[in-house]
């Protein structure tokens, strides 16, 4: 059984016919070829798949494409404007908050949502808020630094 | 200093694509006409595989083919090879049972692949696999390391009595016995080095493709060493000549050892693509990674340290049982032997060392190198023993180490376990770490913590590791079935830009930046004009890939050698163009100059004339400026350092909070401090993870993997650790490679585990606790505290 889905992704209207069981991450990666959103687990724990739906962070591996019907989705590909990185992306670069880069899209999307909710988090809060994102490379040290730096720039 | 050269904190060239979602990991790739494969895996730890009925699966929607082990055998597909031969004490070779790509006749661990279903989509392949009818005859299983060699344990392989793969030893047993006989004190320890799962966040993936016109196969795979995969798969498994096989490892999302090995899925998709006439793609689910990626560690060890009455080490005796799992993974046999026993001298002058290692088969996922690979196990044995000895003899933890460190003046130092340390200044990094950790203030912090109901513990560990995995002739004599050099090609283009082709592979290590810095420093080419290419056997002459912290000491040295050739050729060209003698040409900061004059040509001008050779010494020099070098190291490199950690244990719950972590490392010369710090941070958290939360557990009765997902296998999260203080000491560079570098990839993981456990034991010393196995969970700690309390109350 296939169903029709339509949504805005990174500001562009998109639509498709998908199997009902299709996950949002599959729709993004396979139908739209937006492969910046990654899959790192099958139990909704690693956060490599985090995107924004209507401005809020969600795990796209645990969301059906059908659930995103009619929403506005932002993925990592939609953050930079005219070749200029989003302040969070810039902070990750400046502070070497990524190594292999696989967790990075989800980390960046979660971090942006974190600052939307808590504009000036302290270190303990940042570490606690990152509970849903696993990074095996960086030891989190520089991710925490990057988020602190981004919080300053983003004017919280 | 050259801009963006050695020592600069250059921001990474690779970051833009990763930060904007434009990386290309294997699963991001899709080949035209691609089909998908799903692997049906054994649900049993051990069973006879009797019959596979594929009729219903073949009739399922979208299913293209079903492949079994029998099909592969009939097609002449060979088993997966083991890359390192080990010999028993009696000189006979280790038992190396075949490791088929798909199981034949028996399955030996949960996850052992049984059949492959190829279909139009991944979902349809999975649906099809549900229709396979497999007839298993379950057998009793053994998973625990300590049980495998016991009488009556189920036999994992026929022909390996008592499940022993090899019974190996190293060192001088007689000298050790003599030293023990005259020891004033002997400290003993029994420990389990827990099994871990590497858990790179990118699950493994592979795509096979066949071009009938050229009769050529291409394999895209998330690997740390594509040339090694081409070599092993081509020569042993599929029997394809190198020229007919291209292996590409594009962006790879972390490896930590688990992506070194040649895996069944790689051979399967490569073979199947020709069979079904379409590209075939496989991507692991995380739960599949847990039962198919090689795992790490898993040693049971009894160790004894003999000391004289002043606390000087006289001898070390170690007996380890190492669990290799159900089959031999590519480098599995080298890890608990030459990467373990040879490191047991640590930083100390212990004159006599003996180590016996019995390696056993069990019904578990194969075990191989995981970040550190043998060296964290060795460090844990040595540093736990040293700590325990200090406690028993009433010596301070720093005093006992100072007394036994190999002094800087003794370098180069020959250890009793084969290695010759070329350099190191151990006291200096320990003192620096003590200072950075404000060790003097620890007792005050302990008292403050106590007021808050917390028990503070201070743990120190020192480590040394052997990296670079060195001279090929030495490795060959020890059983390696491969050479262990690295290649580099520096290609100037006519306009003066450079492409560097390296046989090392980056999967987070930042080679695109660090290696470009080497070119900027060595040839004076602006970093933005340097492109680094890795991970493609069609583009790079040869390579041994990245593991064992070898990229910079071996791969970087090959780059230096290739640059030397560029400069040598450039001098010849410059001499001709400047009408001077070649001997008078100097090269510095990108300019060839006639010594003592201001006559000079930039390397860009030289490159241009090499490709447009109008005014060129054509009689003696070939046109073009493109040089390849292979570097075979003269010795291992020996990164070393001190880690200090403080923990607070909650008196009521046993929960551990890491409150301080300091690492001072000697990696030799540092190319990019920002990158090095990042490597140390990540390594530390993997060590802390092992010490506090990570544990790979098999059910002893059923042989099922209990910790088979992120719900059960506890990954270190951001709130497990504090921010770190890390520093390096560059005062004792490597003496035998041109850059003076030692490698930094594994250090954090090697030193951290022992530091954390030493701290936990220190926190609990009031309860009479002398050892704690990893991971030190709140439950174990609570029991340790209450066990003692209960005994006291009796
Ligand atoms: S893929 Fe791991 S949480 Fe979504
Ligand atoms: S950068 Fe590799 S997992 Fe985070």
CATH superfamily of the largest domain in chain B: Aldehyde oxidase/xanthine dehydrogenase, molybdopterin binding domain
Instruction: Count up the domains of chain B.
Output: 4
The chain-level structural class of chain A is: alpha+beta
Helix content percent band of chain B: 25-40%
Number of helices, counting only DSSP H or I runs of 4 residues or more of chain B: 19
User: Oligomer, anyone?
Assistant: heterodimer
Give the spatial strand order of the biggest sheet of chain B: 3-5-1-13-10-11-12
Largest interface, by Cβ-Cβ below 8 angstroms: which chains and how many residues each?
A-B, 56 and 57 residues
Describe this structure in words.
The complex is a heterodimer of chains A (156) and B (794). With 156 residues, chain A is of the alpha+beta class. In chain A, 32% of the residues lie in helices and 17% in strands. Chain A folds into 2 domains: 2-77, Beta-grasp domain (Ubiquitin-like (UB roll), Roll), CATH 3.10.20; 87-153, [2Fe-2S]-binding domain (DNA polymerase, domain 1), CATH 1.10.150.120. Chain A has 5 helices and 5 strands. In chain A, strands 2-1-5-3-4 form a 5-stranded mixed sheet, with helices on both faces. The longest helix of chain A is centred in the last third of the chain and has 14 residues, at 104-117. Chain B contains 19 helices and 30 strands. Chain B has 794 residues and is of the alpha+beta class. The N and C termini of chain B lie far apart (70 Å). At the A-B interface, helix 2, helix 3, helix 4 and helix 5 of A face helix 1 and helix 17 of B. The structure holds FE2/S2 (inorganic) cluster (2 copies). One FE2/S2 (inorganic) cluster sits between chains A (98-104, 135-138) and B (201, 253-254, 508).
């Amino acid at each position: 059984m296939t169903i029709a889905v339509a949504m805005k992704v990174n500001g562009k209207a998109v639509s498709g016919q998908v199997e009902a069981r299709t996950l949002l991450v599959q729709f993004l990666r396979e139908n739209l070829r937006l492969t910046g959103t990654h899959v790192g687990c099958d139990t909704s724990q690693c956060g490599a798949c985090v995107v924004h739906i209507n401005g809020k962070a969600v795990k796209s591996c645990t969301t059906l494409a059908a659930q995103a019907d009619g929403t506005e989705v932002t993925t990592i590909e939609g953050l930079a404007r005219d070749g200029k990185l989003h302040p969070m992306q810039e902070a990750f670069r400046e502070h070497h908050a990524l190594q292999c880069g696989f967790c990075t899209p989800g980390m960046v999307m979660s971090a942006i949502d974190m600052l939307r909710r808590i504009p000036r988090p302290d270190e303990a809060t940042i570490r606690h808020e990152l509970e849903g994102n696993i990074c095996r490379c960086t030891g989190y040290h520089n991710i925490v630094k990057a988020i602190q730096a981004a919080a300053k720039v983003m004017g919280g | 200093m050259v801009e963006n050269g050695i020592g600069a904190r250059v921001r990474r060239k690779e970051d833009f694509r990763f930060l904007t979602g434009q990386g290309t990991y294997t699963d991001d790739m899709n080949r035209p006409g691609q089909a998908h494969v799903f692997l049906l895996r054994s649900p049993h730890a051990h069973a006879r595989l009797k019959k596979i009925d594929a009729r219903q699966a073949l009739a399922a929607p979208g299913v293209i083919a079903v492949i079994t082990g029998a099909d592969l055998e009939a097609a002449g597909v060979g088993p997966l090879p083991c890359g390192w031969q080990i010999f028993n004490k009696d000189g006979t070779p280790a038992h190396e049972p075949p490791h088929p790509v798909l199981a034949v006749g028996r399955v030996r661990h949960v996850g052992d692949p049984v059949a492959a279903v190829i279909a139009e989509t991944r979902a349809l392949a999975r649906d099809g696999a549900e229709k396979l009818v497999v007839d298993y005859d379950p057998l009793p299983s053994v998973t625990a390391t300590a049980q495998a060699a016991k009488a009556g344990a189920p036999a994992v392989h026929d022909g390996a009595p008592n499940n022993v793969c090899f019974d190996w030893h190293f060192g001088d047993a007689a000298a050790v016995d003599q030293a023990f006989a005259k020891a004033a004190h002997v400290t003993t320890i029994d420990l389990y080095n827990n099994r871990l799962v590497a858990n790179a966040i990118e699950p493994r993936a592979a795509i096979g493709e066949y071009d009938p016109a050229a009769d050529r196969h291409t394999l895209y795979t998330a690997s740390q060493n594509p040339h090694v995969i081409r070599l092993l798969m081509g020569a042993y498994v599929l029997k394809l000549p190198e020229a007919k096989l291209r292996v590409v490892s594009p962006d790879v999302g972390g490896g930590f050892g688990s992506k070194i090995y040649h895996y069944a899925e790689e051979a399967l998709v490569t073979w199947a693509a020709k069979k079904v006439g379409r590209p075939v793609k496989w991507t692991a689910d995380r739960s599949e990674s847990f039962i198919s990626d090689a795992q790490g560690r898993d040693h049971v060890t009894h160790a004894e340290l003999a000391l004289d009455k002043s606390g000087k080490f006289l001898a070390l005796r170690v007996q380890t049982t190492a669990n290799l799992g159900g089959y031999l993974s590519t480098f599995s046999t080298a890890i608990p032997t030459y990467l373990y026993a040879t490191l047991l001298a640590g930083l100390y002058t212990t004159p006599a060392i003996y180590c016996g290692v019995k390696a056993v088969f069990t019904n578990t996922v194969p075990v191989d190198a995981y970040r550190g690979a043998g060296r964290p196990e060795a460090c844990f044995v040595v540093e736990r023993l040293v700590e325990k000895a200090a406690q028993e003899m009433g010596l301070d933890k720093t005093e006992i180490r100072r007394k036994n460190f190999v002094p800087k003046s003794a370098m180069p130092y020959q250890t009793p376990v084969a290695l010759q340390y070329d350099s190191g200044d151990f006291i200096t990094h320990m003192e620096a770490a003590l200072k950075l950790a404000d060790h003097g203030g620890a007792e005050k912090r302990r008292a403050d913590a106590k007021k808050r109901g917390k028990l503070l513990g201070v743990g120190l560990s020192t480590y040394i590791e052997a990296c670079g995995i060195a001279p090929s002739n030495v490795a060959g004599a020890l059983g390696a079935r491969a050479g262990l050099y690295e290649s580099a090609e520096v290609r100037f283009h006519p306009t003066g830009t450079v492409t560097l082709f390296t046989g090392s592979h980056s999967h987070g290590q930042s080679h695109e930046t660090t290696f470009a810095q080497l070119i900027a420093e060595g040839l004076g080419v602006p970093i933005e004009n340097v492109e680094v290419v890795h991970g493609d056997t069609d583009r790079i002459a040869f390579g041994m890939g990245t593991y064992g912290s070898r990229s910079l000491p071996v791969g970087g040295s090959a780059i230096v050698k290739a640059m030397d050739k560029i400069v040598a050729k450039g001098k010849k060209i410059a001499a001709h163009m400047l009408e001077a003698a070649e001997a008078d040409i100097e090269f510095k900061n990108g300019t060839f100059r006639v010594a003592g004059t201001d006559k000079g040509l930039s390397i860009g001008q030289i490159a241009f004339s090499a490709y447009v050779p109008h005014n060129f010494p054509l009689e003696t020099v070939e046109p073009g400026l493109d040089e390849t070098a292979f570097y075979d190291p003269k010795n291992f490199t020996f990164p070393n350092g001190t880690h200090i950690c403080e923990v607070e244990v909650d008196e009521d719950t046993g929960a551990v909070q890491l409150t301080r972590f300091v690492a001072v490392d000697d990696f030799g010369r540092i190319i990019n401090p920002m990158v090095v710090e990042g490597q140390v941070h990540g390594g530390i958290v993997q060590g802390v993870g092992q010490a506090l939360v990570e544990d790979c557990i098999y059910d002893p009765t059923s042989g099922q993997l209990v910790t088979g997902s992120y719900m059960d296998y506890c990954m270190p999260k951001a709130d497990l650790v504090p921010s770190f203080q890390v520093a390096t000491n560059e005062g004792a560079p490597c003496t035998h490679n041109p850059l003076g570098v030692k490698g930094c990839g594994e250090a954090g993981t090697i030193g951290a585990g022992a530091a954390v456990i030493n701290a936990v034991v220190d926190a609990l010393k009031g309860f009479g606790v002398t050892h704690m196995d990893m991971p030190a969970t709140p439950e174990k700690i609570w029991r340790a505290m209450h066990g003692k309390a209960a005994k006291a109350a009796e």
